[in-house]
Amino acid sequence: MNVELSELKENISQLSDEELLKVIGDGASQYRKEALDYARAEIARRGLEADAAANSIRCAKCAGIMEEGFVPDRGHFEVVQPARWVEGKPEKSFWTGTKTGDKREARIHAYRCASCGYMEFYAIEETSE
Q: What per-residue confidence (pLDDT) applies to 119?
């Protein structure tokens, strides 16, 4: 570990509990990744309870808090369901609009930054057990 990172770790370890929780909470956008990682490790070492916002997914652009939502897919009779990812290129179908056949599918999980509006999508396949 280089000197700069050692000093960073030492400085973080000297913060009060309240200051430490602010680092990973509202102030997270002001700190680099290493500082946030050290702060989370110090919080765990002290056995502190971090709030839900501090443990949430952070925006890749501004480090704001990402909130989960979904992209609506309006089907027959305007029935709303979460959109799905289907492998391969779309193929037209006379009867159903687009062929899906036996292609792999996954629900699209959408996250939007509450601060800057940046969005991320994840296609997570459900496993049947």
A: 95
